Task: inverse folding
């Protein structure tokens, strides 16, 4: 049986650009279309390889900047034939335009009560739908900062999937009570039937895991992680990226390493599509729940190559 792949892109206004006092148009440019390698570029590359991706869109900046920027994100993604699901950074609830980030709500979703989380999810869903997106059935908390109350809240509101569990961020930020090495989709009755689709991780060392994310893994590590999942018959692979991840932090220049990794990843998924087909959550692909999947084991040479590549990337960015 093929292993479903969820290629996910967290799509949001980067708080750092708001905190720098930039206006809405500039925040959009630096967060969503930075240096010619943002949303439009990524959508075109996905189309070139006939890949499906899920864009987790955070509509909460609409509370500060209005719906127009969120509507632009939604229209761009839907026009490219990709899907939109819900992302949420709750700090936007108390933000104010032009105050350089002085005012904000609590940043982590787990810091809110169950009732407060339900209210936030309702508010965010309404904004996303008002911006033109279909009603979401899948969710990812900003910074993966979900807990078990989040799953209960999602079940209460009729969501089918959550993808907030990330073992590399557990238990400090990602607080859903699952093991750090949980990478297989799982459905727990106590959560009301929501299917948790964890972010895939690999082992960096026996006591440490690393997120399957463009800025975290080399192309070689990504290939090995995909091959490991296919050969082992994993229940799913969930990959993370961001709309701004292919550019430097200021959003002014492409990050050549990350661009190469993205292009390589798209080529890999194209080549491996028979064993690792990409899916939208709205496809509701059959998932082998509770599969005994284990992350790719550590490899010192693989890790050293990535560290050298990352050092070069950071050096180039510092000189930009």
Result:
């Amino acid at each position: 049986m093929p292993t479903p792949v969820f290629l996910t892109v967290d799509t949001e206004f980067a708080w750092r650009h708001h905190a720098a006092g930039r206006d809405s148009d500039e925040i959009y440019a630096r967060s969503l279309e930075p240096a010619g390698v943002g949303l439009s570029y990524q959508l075109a590359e996905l189309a070139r390889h006939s890949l499906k991706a899920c864009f987790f869109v955070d509509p909460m900046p609409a509370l500060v900047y209005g719906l127009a920027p969120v509507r632009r994100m939604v229209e761009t993604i839907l026009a490219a034939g990709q899907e939109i699901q819900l992302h949420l950074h709750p700090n936007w609830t108390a933000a104010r335009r032009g105050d350089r980030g002085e005012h904000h709500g609590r940043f982590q979703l787990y810091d809110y009560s169950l009732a407060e989380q339900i209210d936030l999810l309702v508010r965010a869903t309404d904004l996303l739908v008002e911006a033109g997106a279909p009603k979401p059935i899948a969710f990812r908390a900003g910074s993966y900062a979900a807990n078990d109350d989040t799953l209960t809240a999602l079940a209460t509101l009729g969501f089918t999937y959550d993808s907030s569990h990330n073992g590399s961020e557990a238990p400090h930020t990602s607080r859903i009570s699952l093991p750090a090495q949980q990478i297989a989709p799982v459905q727990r009755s106590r959560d009301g039937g929501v299917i948790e689709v964890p972010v895939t991780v690999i082992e960096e060392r026996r006591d440490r895991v690393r997120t399957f994310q463009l800025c975290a893994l080399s192309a070689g590590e990504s290939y090995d992680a995909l091959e490991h999942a296919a050969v082992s018959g994993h229940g799913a692979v969930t990959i993370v990226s961001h709309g701004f991840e292919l550019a430097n932090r200021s959003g002014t220049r492409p990050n050549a390493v990350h661009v190469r990794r993205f292009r390589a990843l798209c080529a890999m998924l194209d080549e491996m599509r028979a064993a690792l087909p990409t899916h939208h959550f709205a496809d509701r692909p059959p998932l082998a729940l509770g599969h005994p999947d284990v992350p790719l084991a550590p490899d010192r040479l693989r890790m050293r190559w990535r560290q050298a590549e990352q050092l070069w990337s950071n050096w180039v960015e510092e000189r930009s």
